[in-house]
Amino acid sequence: MPANEQPTSAKSLPTDNWPTSTTRLQHETESLCTSFFVRLETLPQHELEQLQAAGFLNDRFEVRLLREKHVPYLVRGLEYLPPGFASMDASRPWFMYWILHSLELLDDEADVAAFASRCINTIQRCWCSQLENKGGFGGGILQLGHLATTYASCLALAIIGTAEAYAIVDRPALLAFFLSLKDPETGAFRAHDHGELDVRTTYCAISIAALYGILTPELTFGVVDFVKACQTYEGGFGPFPFQEAHGGYNFCAAAILSILDGWDAIDEDALVVRLDTIRSYGAVCKLELIL
């Protein structure tokens, strides 16, 4: 969609004449967000010029991203976080991944390089071999290895992309960590030792294994069958079999199928119908993968 094109009027999500607290909250959220959607061509010239003077529009009166403000905001997150973030101590790798990835998308290679050494040092200290649980990256120093923070750590290192960054990943130990979390009955992966098991955690393991060249037959055994079992009557994917479809799990399932070339195992037509149905409803809806 062009930068200056505004969203078309959207239909509200259907309630099947059976409203619930969830559908009421959905409608309230849609109504709140829709009020902020204004077509630029409906604004008077002086308001367009005010938006342009503030930097929100370019010289062609098209919406522009405020890169010059986003970059300093992101860089501050790699320096020091305010006390309110103390509760997020177990999310250190996520902060690094989110920020480094954002800087990469903004083509800010200089700041990625400037913080590379500090990020590598922090991520290295999150490696869990010292806890004798077969490796993996935890959310912080001396914390339990977890597939989600391992995913974030490995992607942050890949964004940095230096030999030093790649060298801190002990690939045999990482493979052993993944295998230790693989469920022999379903083929899926647990988030951590005795943790939850779903499409999300399985995506974390499979995607990082593919990225780091440790995607072995033992690791992939049963994974496509597990994903297939997670497809619902709606066509989308739930977290595990017999659960409601959700946009986030659609993404994870589709990514796994793409990596493992497993599209033939699922009902693609039903998935496309599901995605098209969700896309057509609401100003605010669950994130869905558009194939």
UniProtKB/TrEMBL annotation:
Cofactor(s), by name: Zn(2+)
Organism of derivation: Aphanomyces invadans
The keyword Transferase belongs to this UniProt entry's keyword annotation: yes
Family under the similarity heading: Belongs to the protein prenyltransferase subunit beta family.
InterPro entries noted in UniProt: PGGT1B-like, Prenyltrans, Terpenoid_cyclase/PrenylTrfase
One annotated GO molecular function: metal ion binding
Keywords from the UniProt entry: Metal-binding, Prenyltransferase, Repeat, Transferase, Zinc
Protein name, UniProt field: Prenyltransferase alpha-alpha toroid domain-containing protein
One Gene Ontology cellular component: protein farnesyltransferase complex
Ranges for domain Prenyltransferase alpha-alpha toroid: 65-271
Any Pfam family: Prenyltrans
Region (Disordered): 1-21
